Amino acid sequence: MFSRILVVCTGNICRSPVAEAMLRQALPAKQFSSAGLGALVGHGVEPTARALAEADGLNVTDHQARQLTREMLTDADLVLVMSAGQRRAVGELAPEALGKTMPLGKWLPGEPDIPDPYRKSREVFEHVHELLKAAVGEWARRL
Fold it and tell me: Which CATH number describes the domain made up of 4-142?
């Protein structure tokens, strides 16, 4: 069973920490963490992403961005990424983790990639936030 779930994005300040908080809220019995392939290590959640998360009652206050490591991938039962490119990058870092690495948007209709809103407009952040909510909702039903 999947009990330790790792959510991965690029900087670990927009998508993965918010998705981690959403998953934690939806499935409190499981362990969630997040990391970035090119993490802005030590940074908190990006202000627009944080505002949208907090408006949904999510607590992302204590988040500090972490760089993804092979050990994190090995320890996780399931790794959720935002894009096909990130899945490939996970496979390069830890080939043995590829079989347990899936797109967060896997169950969404159409394109499973969830775009990076970093340095984009509030509208893009809102769109990505809705995609994260929908994707997390689908995973929560299946986990």
Answer: 3.40.50.2300
